[in-house]
Design a protein that fits this description.
Blueprint: E1 11-14, H1 16-20, H2 30-42, E2 47-53, H3 65-70, E3 79-84, H4 87-96, E4 101-107, H5 110-117, H6 121-137, E5 141-147, H7 160-171, E6 178-182, H8 189-203, E7 208-212, H9 219-228, E8 233-236, H10 256-265, H11 274-288, H12 295-299, H13 306-313
Parallel strand pairs: 1-8, 2-3, 3-4, 4-5, 5-6, 6-7, 7-8
The structure holds zinc ion.
Zinc ion binds at residues 19, 181, 183, 211, 213, 242, 244, 253.
């Protein structure tokens, strides 16, 4: 590590099994979802968003949440996260006995909050605080994500003051962290840098997690800017799958292998094994029946194993 400004280590959260898959039209089997979790663990993931407990009519891909939880490998060293939108979802997640952490979502604008979860923005903050409180009361942990922190698909620009105020309100419920999500992929590094710094100050000593979608190609630049501003946890999905059923035009998450490649090459440890991530990309591409958006998944790491390089240049 040569640049003192940058941390030596960040924590990655694998969101592929939930955010990555939820918007896919092809129905993925429960066994394949569990296999994806197992492969993520083999590649070094220790925090994984495994499913969401939402209305199956709204998000059919997550209808097997209970079955996915029942099949999760029993690991003391892995934190399984279940995304929930309300008290009912929280109770369902707690009842599985397999979820360690509840993820709540507060939305920065009223229009998007209505489309995403049928409540106002303030209502989504209250619901998130309730979910975190339920998690803490049940002996789990809770965290909150502020969706559309950098821009809204319906209302356009989102004021930084609004996001900072939401983060401060969410922090009072005692989550383990607060995340800023660029749900539709409109953020730029300067905006990310400013907002991460402001939110960190507002929720001190809680950490900031970041969640970027690569809709406009700024995903990796935003990850780098966020880490430079003090974010210590990064969401990503293997292969770069993802989207939002309620956010028109949103593309995939930043790809786990792309983020891991960038950070590891820059001397920042992610705890992930790039070769295993690339293997998983190939496997998942087979399951999905299409190539996945990740760049490193296609190109491979660097420097490559000698045998592989010789084969390629032959
Ligand atoms: Zn997302």
């Amino acid at each position: 590590m040569t640049d003192k400004m940058y941390t030596a280590k960040i924590e990655m959260v694998e969101v592929g099994p939930r955010d990555g898959l939820q918007n896919e039209k092809v129905s993925i089997s429960t066994a394949d979802k569990i296999a994806l979790v197992e492969r993520a663990i083999e590649a070094g993931s220790r925090r994984i968003e495994v499913t969401s407990f939402v209305n199956p009519r709204a998000v059919p891909q997550m209808a097997d949440a209970d079955a996915v939880c029942a099949g999760l490998p029993a690991r003391q060293d892995v934190t399984y996260i279940g995304l929930v939108m309300n008290g009912r979802g929280a109770e369902r997640a707690i009842e599985t006995g397999r979820i360690h952490q509840l993820g709540a979502v507060a939305v920065s604008t009223d229009t998007f909050a209505m489309a995403n979860q049928g409540q106002t923005s303030d209502g989504s903050v209250d619901a998130s605080c309730d979910i975190i409180a339920r998690a803490n009361a049940a002996g789990l942990t809770g965290q909150a994500t502020i969706a559309a922190s950098f821009g809204c698909p319906f209302e356009g620009e989102v004021g930084e003051d609004r996001v900072v105020a939401m983060a401060a309100a969410l922090a009072t419920a005692e989550p383990v962290e607060i995340a800023l999500a660029d749900t539709i992929g409109v953020a730029n590094p300067a905006h990310v840098s400013r907002l991460v710094a402001r939110v960190l100050e507002a929720i001190d000593p809680l950490p900031v997690r970041v969640h970027f979608h690569n809709t406009r190609g700024t995903g990796l630049a935003n990850v780098w800017a966020a880490i430079g501003a003090g974010a210590t946890v990064v969401d990503a999905s293997i292969g770069g799958l993802g989207g939002c059923p309620f956010a028109p035009g949103a593309a995939g998450n930043v790809a786990t292998e792309d983020v891991a490649y960038m950070l590891e090459r820059a001397g920042i440890s992610t705890g992930l094994d790039l070769d295993r991530l690339i293997e998983t990309n190939r496997w998942l591409s087979g399951v999905m029946g299409k190539p996945l958006p990740a760049m490193v998944g296609k190109a491979g790491g660097f420097p490559q194993a000698r045998e592989e390089t010789e084969k390629e240049s032959a």
